[in-house]
Amino acid sequence: MFGITQTCTEVSGIRADDIPDWITRGNEPVILRGLVKHWPLVAHGHSGPVAAMDYLRSFYNGRPTMIYQGASDINGRYFYNDNATALNYTSTRGSVTDMLEQVARTLGKTSCPSLYIASNQIDTHFPGLRDYNDITLTPATTTKPLAPPLASIWIGNRSLASCHFDTLYNIACCAVGHRRLALFPPDQIANLYPGPLETTPGGQVISMVDFHQPDYTRYPRFRQAQAAGKLAELAPGDAIFIPTMWWHQVEGLAPFNVLINYWWNPSARYLDNGMSALMHAMLAIRDKTGPEKAAFKALFDYYIFNDEPAGSHLPEEARGMLSELDEATARQLRAMLVNQLNR
After folding, report:
1. Most CB within 10 Å of its CB: which of 11, 56, 92, 138?
2. Do 258 and 177 form a contact (C-beta atoms < 8 A)?
3. Does one domain contain both 163 and 198?
4. Which of 203, 234, 264 is the last residue of a domain?
């Protein structure tokens, strides 16, 4: 499939309340067969789409949410128009109940609009659902304050979330329907041909390659990405661990699909998102002269990417921000950055 021959590592027998550290702190995707097969939502899904919909409705609190809708001719692929200047679907706020009724009317049809709720926080819209359908993520032993994992739900008929990456670690649980994922390590970014930064489906830059019909004339290096890629097929009750920054395309293959995922960051919560630094580097460095860019590359290698911490030759009391950041120095550094941006 997709010209990818490798498959992800698989493990079975892992408990949802005791996921090993070697999985959640690793840097390779791992399929967790049957991790959430005990969930009531999975059981209702086995009884059919309508039973699963009724079960979700029993927890829904009526709050509006963002609903994506695409015409039947996009075949569930949330993407761009022909010149990548606009998205090929519409986004509106609406009721989960109404959306589920629309999906129910598409069951059994070969051609129908695509309907999708993406990354809706469970606790804000489905209170109580996690009392019966949840996993336990135990953070690494640390004295640093960590943000709690974020649990989100994805609901829809057949859909394709184009290949993208997330800056957080992720465990995605297939609750209803079937999912197919294609995954690529972070170093494959150039071979995946990222799209625009300004307008993106779901807020993340995506690959411009149609994996089902790749145009090798336009995207020749995609063959290298295929050689490095891995495939995962998830049945109801299966889950997958996706490491930070791994590119992944996710397809919902059934007439009705529900996925619940958990995002978390093992780093201290006072650290900023690295994408902010990337955007600032575009503003401050990317379009400078070659010698200046080369000099800044040396600075980044020394201060950011060096295995030996910068300033290790200084007395500890003189290192300041060159020491490992804590909440106070992170606030100080952020204030300095804001002042510079506001000049």
Report:
1. 56
2. yes
3. yes
4. 264
Q: Which residues are paired to 261 by β-bridges?
A: 152, 172
Whether pTM exceeds 0.85: yes
- Tokens standing for residue 167: 């800056």
Q: Quote the tokens at residue 260.
A: 């619940």
Q: How far apart are CA 180 and CA 60, in angstroms?
A: 27
SS3 letters for the chain? CCCCCEECEEEECCECCECCHHHHCCCCCEEEECCCCCCHHHHHHHCCHHHHHHHHHCCCCCCCEEEEEECHHHCCEECECCCCCCECCEEEEECHHHHHHHHHHHCCCCCCCEEEEEEEEHHHHCCCHHHCCCCCCCCCCCCCCCCCCEEEEEEECCEEEEEECCCCEEEEEEEECCEEEEEECHHHHHHHCECCCCCCHHHCCEECCCCCCCCCCCCCCHHHHHHHCEEEEECCCCEEEECCCCEEEEEECCCCEEEEEEEECCCCCCCCCHHHHHHHHHHHHHCCCHHHHHHHHHHHHHHCCCCCCCCCCCCHHHCHHHCCCCHHHHHHHHHHHHHHHCC
209 belongs to a structural domain = yes
Distance separating alpha carbons of residues 238 and 6, to the nearest angstrom: 19
- pLDDT tens-place string over residues 47-64: 999 999 999 999 999 999
Domain-embedded: residue 269: no
Q: How confident is the model at residue 140 (pLDDT cuts 50, 70, 90)?
A: low
Q: Are residues 189 and 314 in the same domain?
A: no
Range of the domain at 74: 6-264
Residues 132, 217 within the same domain: yes
